[in-house]
Design a protein that fits this description.
The chain is α+β, with helices and mostly antiparallel strands. The chain has 4 helices and 6 strands.
Length: 107
């Protein structure tokens, strides 16, 4: 609800992603675990939510679920050595979301 409460019904995808980023990374404190990347707990979503640290795929899963609850269709994409999310708008433009790097949007 924290994300939904901050969005106008006519919010653009950029605004929606900005709110998700704000809530997940700045307010909740989710961050990458680059220092202890191979820690087994990085593979468990419950531990990622508890410790607020994770690896690309588990952070992407959390982001995906938040986006889904806001009505977004996000897809997990396996790039070489990295997981991203993708979003395709009605014009066919694809945005890539790097959840491991604070939700950076790549085009």
């Amino acid at each position: 609800n924290k994300c939904r409460d901050q969005l106008a019904p006519s919010a653009s995808i950029e605004e929606v992603l900005g709110v998700i980023n704000k809530v997940l990374y700045r307010e909740f404190g989710l961050r990458k675990n680059a220092e202890n990347y191979h820690d087994f707990d990085n593979n468990r979503v419950d531990k990622v939510l508890y410790k607020k640290t994770g690896i690309p795929i588990t952070i992407a899963i959390v982001y995906h679920e938040v986006g889904s609850r806001l009505g977004l269709t996000l897809n997990l994409v396996n790039f070489p050595r990295h997981f991203l999310l993708s979003f395709r708008d009605s014009a066919g433009t694809t945005l890539y979301i790097d959840c491991f790097n604070d939700g950076d949007v790549l085009t």
